[in-house]
Predict the 3D structure of the following.
Amino acid sequence: MSKAASTRNSARPAGSSGPLRLIESLAPLLHEWLPRQRWFAGKGRPVTDFTLVSATELLPVGAAPGLLHLLVRAEQDSPAPARSAGDCYQLLVGVRTSLPPRLAAALIGRARTGPLAGSVLYDALLDPRLTGLLLERLRAPGRIGALRFDRDPAADIPAGLPARPLGAEQSNTSLVYGDTFILKVFRRVHPGSNPDLELPLALAQAGCARVPAPVAWYETTEPEPATLGVLQPYLSGSEDGWRLALLALTDGHDFAAGARALGRATAEVHGTLASALPTAVLRKRQIEHLAAEMTERLEATAQAVPALAPYVAGLRTAFDAVADLGHAGRTWAAQRIHGDLHLGQSLRARDGEWSVIDFEGEPARPLAERTRPQPVVRDVAGMLRSFDYAARTHRPWSPKWAIGCRDAYCEGYASVSGADPRAEPELLRAYETDKAVYEVLYEARNRPDWLPVPMAAIERLSLPESPVSHRVPKLPRRPPQ
């Protein structure tokens, strides 16, 4: 893609000779600022260059303040050919002559060169004045430059709601407007419709109340269509499942009732997705490909994390067992799923009802992988691993608590779906193993102190005929729907 093509129809910042020159002002500052951000995906690899993909002026640069919407590609050296083009990031940049003390934490830097020389640039998502403008854009559908804003015409979005950034550590940036709505701004941008818009819209249209329905969203139309942000109701007063689980552990309470109810909610979401969107059946070729992908991730992770190497042979048997079943003619139903389900992606309201949020999937995985139909057991495995994570934060470690939660969750799921995930032990073990391998790589790179948590699961799952639960019911296997 040429730079000229990448900025076609974007608004021209005041005082510049064109949007392409903005990179002269931005690049020196982004080299320092971008790698420090929590949502930057390329940590550990130096940024070699920046490419301006698109630039849209939401407020003139000469205003006080100005507001630029930018898509910037960070070029990085990488051994992975698929990532050699670099990742594309969404930036909303405020422009001022000086920065008030209250915005000190938002500072990107003062531009020394290019068309913005002398201006102070900062993260506009920390400026209430500019986040208010963003809400107004979402309230009034239309286009500006490369951006298109859309909304549910039936939704009531009041004007003037104050904004505050959500303080939780995450891979995107979220703003809460007046304890009424939450706007998720996707920092790492992939071409296509983001599942965090696509799936909640489908669920809302099908009448599923377990997921907050999108009320407004915006996207870029150039150089390729891509989702940039989604506004949804903010479930004020709800508490996330991770915090609730930790509180139960601290107070010495079990969490079985909550886990069982969460299992029911998960099954309702899966059932609605299966009825609202296309489904598939995984047969021999797809199953062998699935097992091969898992094996490849295992071997690559063992190269990156030597502590995993002694367990590779035992872990591989989980994937081989699935491939053998596929070769023997076994099939599995596949559908759209959450893709990154864990306790932190669930919210319990004051009345005890659970909601499921954040359908983006694992951001590190390609969008094509995140949007293809998969067995629902993958989501179940993610939640089972989350119960284990919660239990391991408590001292002394009590496996009984985690086992009780895992079994209760599967029982709740079966009560709605009619099929207990534990009745598919080979597939469940394979997905839980794949998730634990993913966790090992993540923790080794980002939180080394947490590495013992997934490594404990690795040790268990590498054993011959490793159990996925201590009580696996003997239910008849259901044919694919």
